Amino acid sequence: MANATNKPGGAPAGKAGPEEGLDYNPPRSLPLQIFLFCAFLVTLAAYVAGQRSDSASEKLAATVRADQQDREVVARNKYLGYTKLGFQAEERKDYAAAVSNFQSAALLENIGEAHYNLGNALLLLSRTNEAVKEFQAALALDPKLKPLAPGGGKP
């Protein structure tokens, strides 16, 4: 006796076997195609925006690395580190930060050079009275700085 498909061991009627129905193509959905296209455009726009911001990210990363290196210098030799940070702040025209760093350096090493640098930074902030006191402290600690003082090099 034969089964419903007329094939021995075949599938029951109404169900296609693996070899049957290979040419079945489900109908395409227009909303799905639109959604996929929009997703592609958004992804492409995000990629392009990411490429444009890479140079800014690289600059930021370089700044962070430089800042980390500066902090390592400070950790190794705090006086020289604070002095370096003070000069870098002066170059950026961040005179308040320069004063702060030079004050830290002068507290760590009570030497003429530290007070001289602090005096220069104070002058840049127009804090003349404080700058004069720092120059006086610098001259008291290191008389070789006398030619650097205003009028000190003239006979």
Describe the structure.
- The protein starts with 29 loop residues before the first helix and ends in a 14-residue tail after the last helix.
- It has a domain at 78-148: Tetratricopeptide repeat domain (Serine Threonine Protein Phosphatase 5, Tetratricopeptide repeat).
- Helix 1 (30-76) packs across helix 2 and helix 4 runs antiparallel to helix 5.
- The model has no long low-confidence stretch (mean pLDDT 77).
- It has 155 residues and is mainly α.
- 66% of the residues lie in helices and 0% in strands.
- The longest helix has 47 residues, at 30-76.
- The protein contains five helices and no strands.
Give the tags.
155 residues; mainly alpha; Serine Threonine Protein Phosphatase 5, Tetratricopeptide repeat; 66% helix; 0% strand
